[in-house]
Specification:
elongated, 185 residues, single chain, four-stranded antiparallel beta sheet
């Protein structure tokens, strides 16, 4: 140990602390960072697909629940209810009809469909429910992911009794038809 007293002070500190060091070396840190990066790059596309499916499914559920709410309120209030589809707005929306006689048909004036594209084949933008819950509209609505290609869900509404069914949409919009709505969700 006598030879250590002749070394400059910074070398003596280094030689003492080297034996007590419990930190990570630069090579270990870089190796961990590379492994984490590889795992993240493998998991990210799967995560993005899952998020896109959830967003699109949420858009379909919002659409279906809003239309069913208007149908239930038409029956409950004993009067006609109308909602309007606004597929070209950003984000697409379902709007309460502007005429004041339809107040109470929906709890909100507008319901946005976030992170999706929306297509339909109705002849107009209005969907009407009679005081019995019947509808004169027959059509298909498609909710499509804006982030991942190929994720599409559909909602088919029948006329007269106003029943709705949903499923996976297997064709590429702008083609919208009930025959391409396959039961599956």
């Amino acid at each position: 140990m006598a030879w250590q007293s002749k070394l400059p002070i910074f070398l003596r500190l280094f030689s003492r602390s080297r034996g007590l060091s419990s930190g990570w070396t630069l090579i270990e840190v870089v190796t961990v960072a590379v492994v984490v990066g590889i795992l993240a790059s493998i998991a990210m596309p799967s995560f993005m697909g899952m998020k896109a499916r959830m967003d699109t499914r949420n858009g379909l559920d919002t659409l279906k629940q809003t239309l069913q709410q208007a149908q239930r309120n038409a029956i409950k209030m004993g009067k006609e209810c109308r909602v309007q589809l606004s597929p070209n707005s950003s984000p697409p929306k379902i709007l309460l009809h502007t005429d004041s006689k339809y107040n109470g048909c929906l709890p909100y004036r507008e319901v946005p469909l976030e992170n999706v594209l929306f297509h339909h084949n109705f002849s107009g933008t209005d969907i009407r429910f009679s005081y019995k819950g019947n509808s004169t509209n027959l059509g298909t609505m498609v909710v499509e992911s804006i982030n991942v290609v190929g994720i599409r869900y559909c909602l088919v509404m029948s006329n007269m009794i106003g029943m709705m069914r949903s499923g996976d949409y297997v064709e590429v919009p702008p083609t919208v038809s009930a025959t391409h709505c396959k039961q599956g969700i």
